[in-house]
Amino acid sequence: MLEELQGKGLLIHHWDADGISSACLLLERLSDKNIDNRTPELGNYFLTEGELDEYSKYDFVIVADMSLPEDNILRLAENAKVFIFDHHLGKVIKEVYHNNPIIKGEDPDKYPSASWIVNDFLGNDVNLFSLLGVVGDHEQNIKNNETFYKIITEFCQKHNLSFDDMLKMVHLLDTNYKLGDKKAVEKAPRLLFEYNSASGILKNTQWNENLTKLNEEITRQLESPADEIDGIIMKKINTTYNIISTITRKVAWESGKNTVVLNTGFFDDKDQLYVRSAKNLESMILRGKALGFKCGGKKEVLGAILPKDKTDSFVDEIKKFLTKN
Questions:
Q1: 158, 247: one domain
Q2: Does residue 146 have a pLDDT over 80?
């Protein structure tokens, strides 16, 4: 299907390890095509008007590991063939090729990352990049998925790697977006394509320097106290680094409780909100979208960008949802 594409193409991918790994797999398969790769403005789960205008010149567009708004997709589809490879919640967009088993009712545990979905679609054997996305989206929690932890363990044994090596590669790839370096994010998939091994990632000097800087900021933010209200961990941070998902993950996994984190420092006029819960968050994701917010996620994760004057009211709705029986 992809091999038959003609003209100039664009690959739009998420900025994290899963998105970068998915992009690497696709670029490898499409190495004979004229294709650019881009990530949205960091922190945006949508395309700006400027991006939509720029991207209208392409003959085909592939979206990997992002649940872009339907109106964005339909706008791209006016001039291009559009393909989506994703595992986030949303609805099927019938006007394009939409490969997302999760929104078609499949078990999320069988499709833990976009990289795994892409790799399966391409018919590849298990490889480093198919698994980096899995580890990136679940980190230590993937050990609870017996099937995939076995796959990862066997791969590591075969290639003389440890699970900690996989985690470090994920953290290194993620440094680019967390430091707000969009160009570095967009260079990363092609670097992976060149490295084609773990050692190149682990020895990347810039990414290792980035990681040291980020770990210092993450430690600083985690040291500031959080509140617990009705069994919910509530934490406010103020940082220009895009580390809200990392902070939320660490707090939630350490506490084992519903966790709501708000970052007031990334955007000038908006707030970042991130929620992790054992409760299915799909209804609140839909609620956020209905209110006009840029909102997305998976059953256990909600991420949103909120106008500052709407933040308190939406956080209150989430708190009520999380405490409701």
A1: no
A2: yes
pLDDT on residue 89:
84
- Residue 147 backbone dihedrals phi, psi, to 5 degrees: -60, -50
Q: What's residue 121's pLDDT?
A: 97
State how far the Cα of 53 lies from the Cα of 256, in Å rounded to an integer.
44
Looking at the structure, do residues 16 and 127 belong to the same domain, yes or no? yes
Whether residue 258 contacts residue 307, with contact meaning beta carbons closer than 8 Å, is answered with no
pLDDT the model gives residue 193 = 85
Given 205, 236, 262, the domain boundary residue is 205
Q: Is residue 210 part of a domain?
A: no
Q: What is the mean pLDDT of the chain?
A: 95
Whether 288 contacts 307, CB under 8 Å: no
Is residue 131 scored above 90 in pLDDT? yes
Identify whether residues 181 and 229 lie together within a single domain.
no
Q: What is the model's pLDDT at position 1?
A: 84
Give the DSSP letter string of 204-234.
-HHHHHHHHHHHHHHHHHHHS--EEETTEEE
With a CB cutoff of 8 Å and minimum separation 6, the contacts of 322 are 230, 232, 258, 260, 275, 277, 279
At 197 the pLDDT is 86
**Claim to verify: residue 234 and residue 190 sit in the same structural domain:** no
Give the per-residue pLDDT at 110. 96
Range(s) of the domain holding residue 196: 2-205
Q: Are 273 and 311 in contact (CB under 8 A)?
A: yes
Across the range 185-201, mean pLDDT stands at: 93
- Inter-CA distances, 247 with 32, 131, 217, 222, 237, Å: 40, 23, 10, 7, 9
Mark whether 199 and 229 lie in a shared domain.
no
